[in-house]
Design goal:
The protein has helices at residues 97-114, 130-139, 161-168, 180-188, 222-232, 249-254, 272-282, 297-308, 314-333; strands at residues 21-22, 35-42, 54-59, 65-67, 70-71, 151-155, 172-176, 193-194, 207-213, 233-244, 268-269, 286-289, 340-346. It is an alpha/beta fold and 354 residues long.
Length: 354
């Protein structure tokens, strides 16, 4: 049984408006012109929103992947019509006793590990298995609890659900969200949101932490965005980034159906080394890659569903889970092959702004 066969769309998709395309000719990460085609005739197989077919090129210098040609800034909104970030943040409903206890256990870990005062929380020391620790750390994006007055900026904040959580955890929060409908959802929570990072009226050295959760791959000019983040951070400030990993075993396994592609919304895809390179070019002195948060199973199952364009049978699910288990064993020895890259970069205490 082949799980990498695309059956989703039998007819040719509508073309992207020709006036809304921009050609690059060079890598948007390192500006090197050398490249080779990695995947061609890509389509929006994830949400079926964006029209057109696309080619993903791989830079022969830094290894990053990028669409060329790609949607320009004026028309990229066509790929986000009805996007999931436009949904309102969920309001708390009735929670089962078992879920309440799991939440209290997780919060107790976060309180003792990162210094939060989240509730409900168990009392006394809590010990979680390593994978549960990493999942809990992901909830706060490995950010210690805020001290009085510390400021947090979330770039690509969507409907603001995460910022609302961090505000409850003691942070003074702001968001950047270019999608007007998503930003409106965040505003309903009383959050302060601006549409553009590069033109936002924030003073330099204003924030103690900045996060980009699966956002940098959507940006037309990632280098400029990271340089702006560097300028906005105080000395010693932390930048947290999560993004799909172009070297992921799932990308190799599923090809055009890999969930991390999300063409054409994902304009640039990074390897571990190219992500480190663009962060260093922006001025960050300390760059740490964090362990993978989740096993490969979720990404493998989603990619398999995309490949088959239908629900998986129990046999297909079992086979994909087996493949994911084998991938996790390999990732334990070679973390650069994980499904996503998660890094924390720190602006040096005495580094000059770039």
């Amino acid at each position: 049984m082949r799980l990498d066969r695309i059956d989703a769309i039998d007819t040719a998709p509508a073309a992207w408006p020709s006036h809304g395309l921009e050609a690059l000719g060079a890598c948007p990460v390192c500006d090197h012109a050398g490249r080779e085609p990695l995947l061609a005739d890509l389509r929006d197989l994830v949400f079926g929103i964006g029209p057109g077919t696309w080619t993903l090129w791989r830079c022969t210098a830094c290894g990053a992947g990028y669409l060329d040609p790609r949607p320009d800034r004026a028309t990229i909104g066509l790929a986000y019509a009805g996007y999931y970030t436009q949904e309102a943040a969920l309001t708390p409903g009735r929670v089962s006793a078992a879920r309440t206890r799991r939440l209290a256990r997780r919060n107790a870990y976060l309180n003792q590990r990162w210094g939060y005062a989240l509730a409900p929380a168990l009392t006394g020391p809590v010990h979680l298995p390593p994978i549960q620790q990493r999942r809990a750390d992901r909830v706060v994006r490995s950010l210690p609890a805020a001290r009085a007055g510390e400021r947090l900026l979330d770039v690509g904040c969507g409907n603001g659900a995460w910022l609302d959580l961090m505000r409850a955890g003691g942070w003074a929060v702001w968001g950047v969200e270019p999608d007007a409908q998503s930003a409106a959802r965040a505003a309903e929570l009383g959050l302060s949101v601006v549409p553009d990072l590069l033109t936002a009226p924030f003073p330099d050295q204003h924030f103690d932490a900045i996060t980009l959760n699966h956002v940098i791959e959507h940006l037309h000019d990632p280098g400029a965005a990271l340089a702006r983040c560097y300028a906005l951070l105080k000395p010693g400030g932390r930048l947290w980034i999560a993004t799909p990993n172009l070297d992921a075993l799932g990308r190799v396994r599923f090809g055009p159906a890999w969930r991390g592609l999300e063409t054409p919304r994902h304009l640039v895809l990074y390897t571990a080394s190219s992500l480190r390179g663009i962060l260093a070019a922006a001025g960050f002195e300390s760059i740490e890659r964090l362990p993978p948060t989740d096993p490969a199973r979720g990404m493998f199952l989603e990619s398999a569903r995309i490949a088959r364009a239908r629900r998986l049978t129990w046999l297909a699910r079992a086979r994909v889970k087996w493949q994911a288990w084998r991938a996790d064993r390999r990732v334990s020895r070679a973390p650069e092959c994980a499904e996503e890259s998660v890094v924390v970069a720190v602006r040096g205490s005495f580094g000059e702004m770039r």
